[in-house]
Structures are given as C-alpha cells and as structure tokens.
Amino acid sequence: MAEKVRVLRGPGAGRMQGKGRRVKEPGKLFRRLMSRVFATYGLHIVVVFFCIVIGVLANVQGTLFTRLLIDDYILPMLKDAGHDFSQLLSAMARVAVLYLVGVMSTYIYQRLMVRVSQGTMLSLRKELFQKMQELPVRYFDTHAHGDIMSVYTNDIDALRQMLSQAMPQAVNSAITIVCVFCSMLFLSVPLSLLTLAMVGVMLFFSGRLSGKAGTFFASQQKNLGSLNGYIEEMMSGQKVVKVFCHESQAIEEFNKKNDELFESADNANKFANIVMPVNAQLGNVSYVLCAIAGGLLALSGRTGMTLGRLASFLSFNKSFNMPINQVSMQINSVVMALAGAERIFAMLDEKAEEDEGYVTLVNIREKDGELRETAEHTGVWAWKHFHQAEGRTEYVSLAGKVDFLGVDFGYTPDHMVLHDIVIHARPGQKIAFVGSTGAGKTTITNLINRFYDIADGKIRYDDININKIKKGDLRRSLGMVLQDTHLFTGTIRDNIRYGKLDATDEEVEAAAKLVNADDFIRRLPEGYDTFLTHDGTALSQGQRQLLAIARAAVADPLVLILDEATSSIDTRTERIVQEGMDSLMKGRTTFVIAHRLSTVRNSDCILVMENGRIIERGTHEELIEQKHRYYELYTGKKIS
Amino acid sequence: MERSYDNLSAKEVFQTLGACVKGFRLASVLTPVFMILEVIMEMIIPMLMASIIDEGVSVGNMNHIYTTGFKMIAAALFGLFAGVMGGRFGALASTGLARNLRRDMYANIQTFSFSNIDRFSSSGLVTRLTTDVTNVQNAYQMILRMFMRAPASLVSAVFMSLLISPKLASIYIVAVFFLGGFLVFVMRRVTGYFRQVFEKYDELNESVEENVSAIRVVKAFVRGGFENARFSKAAENIYRLFVRAETMLITNMPVMQFTVYACILSISYFGARLIVSDELSTGQLMSLLAYCMNILVSLMMLSIIFVMVSMSAASARRITEVLREKPDIAEPERPVTEVKDGAVEFRNVSFSYGGNSEKAVLKNIDISIRSGETVGIVGGTGSGKTSLVNLISRLYDVNSGELLVGGVNVREYSLETLRNSVAVVLQKNEIFSGSILENLRWGKEDATMEEVRSAAKAACADEFIERMEEGYDTWIEQGGSNISGGQKQRLCISRALLKSPRILILDDSTSAVDTATDAKIRAAFREYIPEVTKLIIAQRISSVKDADRILVLDQGRVSGFDTHEALMESNGIYRDVYESQNGNGDFDE
Q1: Which phi-psi region, left, alpha or beta, contains residue B276 (left: φ > 0; alpha: ψ -120 to 50)?
Q2: Beta bridge partners of A537
C-alpha cells in the first residue's frame, strides 16, 4: 500500500528536485535560523561578537606596532649612539599584554561557538524527532525514507558546518576588513585606495571563475546523480546481469556515464582550483604594487610616508586580502547549509496529525451497579464520553464492538480505493479478509486505528464514532501485528515490553508463553536478555513474527488487527506461529488479513474483497456453498 | 558479510591504486612540480621586498625600486601561472584517477561470481563505487596540491630566514617544533575522539532510521513519548561527546595565534637589537616578519591534510579490496560451446557457501533428471532448494561430487553457453528501468516482436501488457515500482523464456501470482515448451503437484523424489506440507 501512494508522485522526486533547485527566499530562511539561535543563545552570541572584536583589535594593534618599532625606536636608535632598549621593552610589554588578551578572547569565543552550534544541533534534532512522532502515517507513506533520513544526516551536518565555522569566520572577516581598512587609511590614504582597487580586480576574476565553476559543478552534480543511480540499480541487479550474460553491455553503458562524469568533474574542479591561486597571486601583485608605490612615496617625502608606516601597511595589505579569500571559500558552505535548513524547516512546518477527539479511555471500578472512574490500574476500561450539549459525562464499557457503515476511502480525494464498506463485528468475533493483492484488505485495517481518515461513512467503536475518540486512546485499545515485522534495537525483553512499558518481567514472559515464543527465547544463549540489532536480523523470520505477536499480547488489547505473513517459513515454524496467533485471538474481536486456511475456517465471518468492495460475506461453509469467488480462491478452480 | 581488510598492507593499497593513475601520470607529476614553483615564487617576493627597502627606499634609489618591483611582479605573475597550472593538472589527475577507479572496479565486478558478490553485498559495492571513490579523489587532489606545497613552503621559508639571519631564524625553528608537537598531540587525541563521536553518531542515525521504518508500530502502540525520551537521551549523549571533541580541536587556533604573536614579538625585539648593532637591515626584518605567517600557516595546513588523508585511508583500502578480488569461477581452457540436451545429473554433490564444509547446505545429492522433464522442488526454509538450482548454471561451484548438464560436467562449458542454455528466474529478481520491451530483450537482444509476444504469452504476461496504454513500450521505473509483484514475476519469466533455454528454472517465481494464473502458466509451459526441462521451486504444493516428479529437500538432503501420489504415500514431510495447505490453501494473491 505504501508503494502505491508513492507512485502517485513518482519515485525519487523529493531529493532530485531538491538538489538542482535554488533555495527560495534565502534571506527569510537565514533570519529564521538566526532568530532561532538568538532566542536560546542571545547572550552567547553577544559575548562571541565582543570577543571577536577584541581578537581583531589585538591583531591590528600588533601590526600597527611595526610602525612604532621602526619609526620610533629602531631608526632613532640607529641615529643616536645611545642604545636604550628599556623603553622598547616596556612598549613591547604593552603589546604583549594586548596580544594575550586577544588570544584569550579567541579561545573564549571558539568555546562558546562550540556550545552554540552543538546546542542548536541538539535542539534541532530533538525538535525534528518530536515532530516526526506527530506526523501522520501518510507522511511516511509519501516520503522516501532515504529523504527523511538525509534531513537528520546531511542537512544537519551542513548546518553544523555553517554555524561552527562559516558564521564566526564571516563575522571575524567582516570585522577584520573594517578594522584593517581603517588602520590602512590612517597609515596612507593613496595606498589604501590602491589596495581597494586591487581587491576589486580580485573579486572580478574570482567571481567570473566561480561562476564558471558553478555551471560545471551543476552538470557534475547531474552526471554524478545519474551515475550513482545507475550504479545502485545495476549493483542490486548484478546477479541478473550474470544470469543473462549481460556483462559487456553493462560495462559499455557504465563507461559512457563514467566518462561524462569525468569530463564535467574535471572542468568543475579545474575552475574551482584556479580561484585560489589567482586570488593569492593577485594579492601578491597588490602587495608588490603597494611596496613600489609606498617606496616612491617615502622617497618623495610627501604624504608623510615613513619606512615604519610602509612596513605596517604592507602587513595590513596581506591581512586585508586574506579574509576576502576566506569569505569566498565559505560561501559554498553557506549555500549548502541554507538548502539544508530549508528542508529541516519544511519538515518542522509539516502539518502534524490532527486529533480533535475528546473521548478518552479510563480505568473504572464498578460500584453499586455504576461505573466510576479511578486512577488505579483496575484492568477494567471504559470510554469517558462527555456530551457537551447535555453537559453530562457518560462511561461506556470497553467491549470491542466495531462497525463500518458505508465507508468510502481514497489515498487521494479523486481516487477512491474502498467503496461502501459495511462490517459489523460483535465483541469477540473473528472477521477474516480474503482477496487478491490490491483488493484493499490492508487499507481497511489502516482505517480502524485512524492511520488514515475515511472520506465518507462512519466507523463506530462501542457505538462511539471513532472521530470522537482521542487517537492515542483509540490506538491503545487496539492491538496490531503487521505483516512486515519491525523490531527495535534492544533486548528481547525490551522489545516485548514495547507493548506495555510498565509490564513486569513475569508479564513479559507470560505473554511470550501465551503466543509460543517462550520456547525459542529460552533456547537462545542469553534468553530474554539477547540483544537485537538491525531489526533483529539474527533471528529467523518466524521468530521475529513470534516476538511481534508477543509484543501485541503483553498489551492485552480487546480488539486485534492481524496481518498474517505470507512469507515462506517452514511448516514447523509456521505451525508454531499459527498456534501463537490463535491463542492471541481467543476472546478478542479480531480483524485478520488471512493467508492461512485454518484462520479463515475458524472465522465468524469471511469478507471476500475485490477492487475495494466486499463482494461476498459469510462463514466458510456458506461461501463454499455459494460457489462464487471464494470457492474459486479455495479450490483454485475457475467457475465460468 | 563484510570482509575484513586488515590483511591488506599499505604497500598493496598503494600499488593497486597507483596502477589506476595510468593515463594521468604526467598530470600527477606536473601538479606538485607546479605547486612547488608557485611556492618558490611566493618566497622570492619578501626577499625582493627587503631589497627594495634597503637598497631602494633607504638609500633613495628610484631605479632600484623600479627594477626590483618589476622583478617582483614578474615573480607574482609566474607564481600565478604555476598556481593555475597546478590547479588544472591537479583536477585532471584526481578526477582521472576517480574515473579509472570506477571503471576498473566496475569491470572487475562484472567478472565476479555470485559468491564474490555475496562477500561484498550489493550495498557494499555501491558504497565503494560512490562514496569511497569520492573520498579517494579528494584525498588525492589534496595530496598532489597541498602535501607537497605545505612542506615546501615551510622548508623554503625557514631556508630563506636562515639566509637572512641564522640567529633570528632559530626562533622559527623553536616555534616550528613547539607548534608541530602541539598539533600532533591535539590531532592524535582529536581523531580518537571523533572516531568515537562518529560511531555514536551512526548509532543515533540508525535509531532514527529504525523509528522511521517502524513508524506504524510506534503509532499503533502510541509510543511517541517513549521514543522521544529515548532519542533525547541519545542526542544529548552525542552533544556531550561532540562538545568534548570540538573543545579539544579549537585549542589549535589560540595556540597558533599565541605562537605567531610570540614570534612577532621576539623577532621584533631581537631584530631591533641586531639592526642597531648593524647586523640586520630594516628591510630584512620586514621580510622575516612576512615569512613568519608562511611557516606557521603551512604547519597548520599540514596537520589538517594529515587528518583528511588518514580519514580516506579506509576508503582506499575498501577500493583495493574490490580491485584485488579474483573471481572464484573461471572459464575452462577448452570450453564446450554447445549444450546437447536438458538432462541434469547430480553425482554425490555436496555444497557449502564459502567452502566451509561443516556448514554444508547440500549433502550428497544424487539425482538424475531427464531432458524435458518437469520437476517440482519443495522443502522448508534453509533446506537448500535455491542452492541446488544455482549450481546448475554454475552460479556457484560444487565442493565435491559432479554436476552434469546435457551429459557434460558444467565446469567444461563456457560460462556463456551454459548460462544461455540454463535460464534461471531468480528468487530475488530485478527489473531494470526501461521499457517492457527493452527488459524482455535482455533474454535475446535481437528478438523480433513475434518472439517477444510469444514469450510473454507463455508466461501469461501478454494479458496485462496488452491492457497497458503503451503496451510493450510502457516504461518500467527503477526496481519495477510501478507494476505489481505478480506482473514483475511474469515479466521475469518471459525474459527468461526468450533465451530459448534447454533448462528453465523457476525459483519461487510465481509466489505473487494468483493460483488461477499460476495454473495457466504451467499449462502454457506444457503447450509451448514441452521439450525444455523445467525445475520449479514453490511454496505452494498446488504449483508442483502436477509435475512429473517432485523433489523433497530436508536440511540439504534428498528426502524424496517421486510423483505426487507416491510421495503422499511414502514421504512424511511432503504429506505434512500438503495437509497444512490442504491442496490450495492460500487465499492471497
């Protein structure tokens, strides 16, 4: 069913579009991200800002000191004979103290930034996960799991890069540029203008080169995507390639795609690689030009140019060009981070599963023939139904009666997959669905627990419209065993206890015994404490199913939804699983998607489905009598 | 089934990957040469500047300023040229290496046998062809461009300083050892920390993945809150680890700054003294200060490169594994190129995956199947059904005993002959993205429309293909996601039939087809391909009941091999399975 929904939007649509597409409204996105960071770490950021300013100033004063060193100390000392270094030493001590302050503030701001970036990551991760728990099942059916995962991995990582490196770097660079430029102006206006002009030239060239590299990177990304797609498809079908002796065709196609990628990757890297040396060497040219011009100015004696000033200036020239290079290197990481942020916020903005239900499930105690709500765990449950019109609260015993009244449903509004479904399940009855794949059996079970909402008609649970019941309480009253078993990383005990978190060890083991799982668990070397990883791959398919059944059993629900597995398990295990399911079903209202004959035969009512409709209903004997579709399915004979 | 790669020596890795540089050797040599040239040009500039100050500005020699300035600009431009060429060749060499690695790996994978593929797993091969290649490409570019440049820059800057003033240069040497030692210390600890962090990080992501794929279970049991608490704990754990690792890493920056400042101050002070005592000129002092940054920045660079390169070492190893893997099924020297008929004979065959004789999956199989016979194969999971049929087209080799097809040992056929005569419809079958027609023509490249239609007809695939709007031109998405499981299986059978094989093997290939269609396919086989030997593995007894004979496997041994009626009489396992299914017991599909 999940697959069916996905087809509607075409495979791989999400990520593919995401890559080529530009970020919409980057400014708005950036502000949203920043306001988030500020809300939690406002004070941190302010301190970081000041520390960066102090660090830059400490650096600048050091460079300015070169001028004093040469003009005020060395040159005068060269002229006089008196070599008194004490003054120089005390001047240098001042510089050293300021340097130390600079070093310390660098350390402080970097430590703070670790907290800010990691803390933001932590809160984003938590919020994403929390949001994910609130999203409707539809979201997971319509989004590739790989796309969801990549929000947690790639997108968060890109954001981390930006927050911990690019942002402080950018602030640092901006402050450096301002401070350094002011100092340069102070030292020499004409040389400053010359430096600025050279920066213009650098920006012009690196802009053009980056633009070129950008277009090649885009085509590299495209070729890479197509090659990776091809690799994935061919590797998973490699055995088929062998069986059909298709190796040479496979190589030919691969080489074509591989060469295309090589060409665009070579071009993209070529231009990207050139940006750095071009900037660095143009920086050198700028340095040289300033040295020459400064030398000439100093010689002419105009504009107050001195040797010390020139020396200082040349250092500044270097430290002016450097941050410009750094900023251009960080731009890419910012773009990637914003693309990631867009996907993260898109998921956070996703509409959560709505729950307008108000009927809740409460523990009750019967007293004087009246139902009383109690906080104790009595094991007796009732629906607490508040009738607003009359202003009274009614308690309805949880019985397990489920009715479908003329239910229509479609995954999209324009395409109904279930039509006019009518089912009446009395407490304790077993209802079996049979029919071919795609007939709509699984879809029906998704409606009872409101994984999806119906389009028309009504579903009633103990005569209460399920739309009025709080989703959590509704689901808690239903047990579910799905066709594909999912187990969690943890011990076997943890996995069974998933059905009832406060279950004692005895309860866990009793549930396992009830469904025939106890036997195999005890035979494992570590028994109930066996640690499962990766969906319990160490266990056999049948054993995993037994655990899923035990998990439902420990919850002890009154209504069960079972999807029997069709998978090929051997007859002995199959019998054990079957018996486990049978004992679980005893005394509960059960909806079962049946694949096994014995299940169907013991059902109180068999519903034969085709194309989203119930076409036959009755007991096994009645349906065999009728000699229609059920008879066909049962005997494999076609009735013409 | 990950194979350990610890036994590969660094030498083997270098040799194997080095061979893939072929075609880009010149670029690989030119890149570092140009990078070093660039460095030398950069080193000359401060030197020339000292001369401008001392012999030009200080003494008022305009001409000297012009000529030296001209030299400096020439040096910068030559540096620009070298830098651009270095970047150009670096890109070519690294992307070229990546291309060759992918090409050679892919070509080698095509020679892999099934057991080679099992050893790496499909997803393992995908990672090696994609992420690992990218890692190596980036590391190689880094090595070519930076690995030579940074030490060259370091060494030449120290050398230049020594030329200017050995006394002052000794300050740099002390600084280099101090900072170098510190960086080694930090990087060591940091890489250890980060390895821990990334391990935990992978675990965290795995748990998210688990949650996403089991979301129905989470919701059915209303465990959102529980999952949130669990995730929060893990995420906070990661947070603490990350903070610890990064706090260690950031000490780099202040310590580097400290060293630079200390150098500047000491050079300034001692430089001033030397100038006053006339052992140094002002210009020289300025160029010494310029070298200071060069030295310490290249040291920093070096440490970063080290970390990056060591991170890609694992990728390099993994690629080497694929490149050095030898296919364990080889063509015979003088191959037989014709399969006479469809007879199959197992002579005391035993088989185990990976040659581990203790875990034999097939034990002493001794059966003979006549050409044209239809044989059903049943048995529980792990009874060896799939392994048995996979031996026939030599997807795996037997460990002991002999396997004959058409009266000849399978090892004597050329693989292509054998596999074209033995068509296997695999249990886990794949349809590729492309039109239905293209997919069917995998069986026979130049098949005419008639041939394709009749193959589709024999597999009962024509009925649904014809109903599709675009018929045989209908586009199949990757993995066949836009057709049903039953339709996919029928396409796979048609594709196999197009090979006009002598032997047709269906490995549980009609499990998603409903009982009626399943029966129709078997009837079509009897009508269209009576002379082909048919081996049918099935879960449903109804699929094999009418076969000539049925082979019952139990834990790798033949438990019975006879007609349905005879097995019902004599074979307990068969009777058991039959009764549990009561003839036709499956309602689904």
Answers
A1: alpha
A2: none
Question: If you search the block for the tokens 């060239």, which residue do you land on?
Answer: A205
Instruction: Examine residue B259 and state whether it is found in any structural domain, yes or no.
Output: yes
Question: Do B269 and B358 fall within a single domain?
Answer: no
Enumerate residues 409 to 448 of chain A having a beta carbon within 8 A of any beta carbon in chain B. Answer: 434-438
Q: Contact, B34 vs B82, CB < 8 A? A: yes
Which residue among B324, B353, B385 closes a domain?
B324
Is residue B199 in some structural domain? yes
Q: Are residues B65 and B119 in the same domain?
A: yes
Asked if A352 reaches chain B (Cβ–Cβ under 8 Å), the answer is: no
Q: Rounded CA gap, B103 and A252, in Å?
A: 10
Of A110, A295, A638, the CB nearest to B52: A295
Cα separation of A122 and A124, whole Å? Answer: 5
Number of CB pairs, chain A paired with chain B, less than 8 A apart: 427
Q: Does B362 lie in the same domain as B273?
A: no
With a CB cutoff of 8 Å and minimum separation 6, the contacts of A90 are none
Range of the domain at B260: 10-324
B334 assigned to some structural domain: no
Q: Do B250 and A130 touch (CB under 8 A)?
A: no
CB B378 within 8 A of CB B577: yes
Q: Which residue of B has its CA nearest to A308?
A: B282
What pLDDT, in 10s, does the model give residues B222-267?
A: 788 888 888 888 888 888 888 888 888 888 888 888 988 898 889 8
Are B145 and B257 members of one domain? yes
Task: Say which of B275, B419, B585 has its CB closest to residue A243.
Answer: B419
Same domain for B459 and B415: yes
What does the pLDDT read at residue B544? Answer: 85
pLDDT in tens, B56-113: 777 778 888 888 888 988 998 898 899 899 989 999 999 999 999 999 999 998 888 8
| pTM exceeds cut of 0.80 | no
Q: Which residue has the tokens 């009025």?
A: A468
> Across chain B, which distance is largest between two alpha carbons, in Å?
119
Check if A300 contacts B (Cβ < 8 Å).
no
**Closest-CA residue in chain A for B442?**
A244
Based on the domain organization, do B62 and B196 belong to the same domain? yes
Kindly state the average pLDDT of the residues A492-504.
85
- For chain B, how many structural domains are there in total? 2
Residues of A in contact with B250 (CB under 8 A): 107, 110-111, 113-114
Same domain, B396 and B476: yes
Which CATH number characterizes residue B456's domain?
3.40.50.300
B121 domain residue, yes or no: yes
ipTM: 0.78
CATH number (domain holding residue B163): 1.20.1560.10
Contacts of A258 in chain B (CB under 8 A): 99, 102-103, 106
Does B304 share its domain with B349? no
User: In B265-285, which positions are buried (b, 16+ CB within 10 angstroms) versus exposed (e)?
Assistant: bbbbbbbbbbbbeeebbbbbb
